[in-house]
Amino acid sequence: MASSNSNKKVTVHSYQWQGINRKGDRVNGEYKGTSEKDVKESLKRQGVNPTKIKKRPEPILKLGAAYKILPVDIAMVSRQLATMLTAGVPLVQSMGIVAEGHEKPKVRELLNQINSDIQSGVPVADALKQHPKYFDDLYCDLVAVGEQSGSLDQVFDRIATYKEKTEALKSKIKKALLYPISVIVVAFFVTLLLLIFVVPQFESIFAGFGAELPAFTVFVLEISEVVQKYWYFIIGGLFLAGYLFKQAHFKSEVVRNNTDIFILKIPIIGPIIRKSCIARFSRTLATTFTAGVPLLEGLESAAGSSGNFIYKKAILEARKDVESGLMLNIAIRASNIFPNMLVQMIMIGEEAGTIDDMLNKVANIYEMEVDDAVEGLTTLVEPLIMVVIGGLVGSLIVAMYLPIFEMGNIV
């Protein structure tokens, strides 16, 4: 019986309290404990007479968020581990504290499982490799280097910085892609609603005119009739096409590669994607260099994290050239898709032995350029939405009022 009680899982909650200290002053705060009684006894030992203790409500997460571990969560965990390790807290204890304090049950479960493996003697990198969905090869390789060199605190700090900047860059790219898509979607549904509900009202009016309608009006009325009859097929077909494309993109490497090539050719969006690829390549390679990962392995990791087929292919080709004995800046220059500034910075870094510093500077520059480009796109798209929707609505209004104007001229 004693052993079963000792193995029973203890849940720690946060409690908000109010009380009076030894000086008679009213004080309040927050305290973690297993129950109100536990918190009350702890406060009394500290010289506080609690007058009110209330369990703090659990944070409300977005639908599905509590059941899914996001890259942002891994970045936050990495930063917390880096902070605790730098402060001298042992890894096992640090991971236990981070797990206990995280708001997502899935993250707590993941960290506790990793911590259990570490306590049983499994190396940290090997424990992380058992969860490739959350910890990629680059993450595990960096941790392995930190274990071997005894500098896990520095490695986790670099990983946290890398993850934070990478996720911030991804967020900006998603924002850049979201605006053009939103223009298309809004314009489509506004046009659909007008064709289904507004245009038919005018058609009943035109039926009593007894005169030939303008060609533009007839064209719009014919489109309206088709949309009224088959609108569910149109919407269903679009959703089906989106679903099929998503499945093909997930399963087919050819579809993914062709999509990457097409995206780079889109005006305005293409240059933003190119800059983000350069920033991610530079940031990844700089991180691996700083951690002591060999150049060839670093290039392989940078290729995987570049985020685009064209750049991945170019980086892997550069890796082959470096493996055959070429300098990195010459190998990168041969690809003809990287900017001259990056090549020059790498060349300076190779000569001075500061490639990681040079690459970090390049990454900072291109991340700032992506940020500025996204802000500019946001400013551009807002009036563009008004112009597109206004143009569509205006065209339909003109088509509907043309017969009325012509009747007025005849009279």
Question: How would you describe this structure to a colleague?
Answer:
With about 400 residues, this protein is mainly alpha-helical. The chain folds into three domains: about 55 residues, Ubiquitin-like (UB roll) (Roll), CATH 3.10.20; about 100 residues, Type II secretion system (T2SS), domain F (Receptor-associated Protein, Up-down Bundle); about 240 residues, Receptor-associated Protein (Up-down Bundle). A three-stranded antiparallel beta sheet has the order 2-1-3, covered by helices on one side. Helix 4 runs antiparallel to helix 5 and helix 8 packs antiparallel against helix 11. The termini are far apart.
Quick recap of the structure?
The chain is mainly α and 411 residues long. It contains 16 helices and three strands.
Beta-strand percentage range: 5-15%
Measured as a percent range, the helix fraction is: over 70%
Low-confidence stretches: 1-10, 59-65
Q: Find the CATH superfamily of the largest domain.
A: Type II secretion system (T2SS), domain F
> Which CATH architecture of the largest domain is right?
Up-down Bundle
Order of strands, widest sheet: 2-1-3
Structural domains: how many: 3
Element order: H for helix, E for strand: HEEHEHHHHHHHHHHHHHH
Instruction: Provide the CATH topology of the largest domain.
Output: Receptor-associated Protein
First-residue to last-residue Cα separation: 101 Å
Structural class: mainly alpha
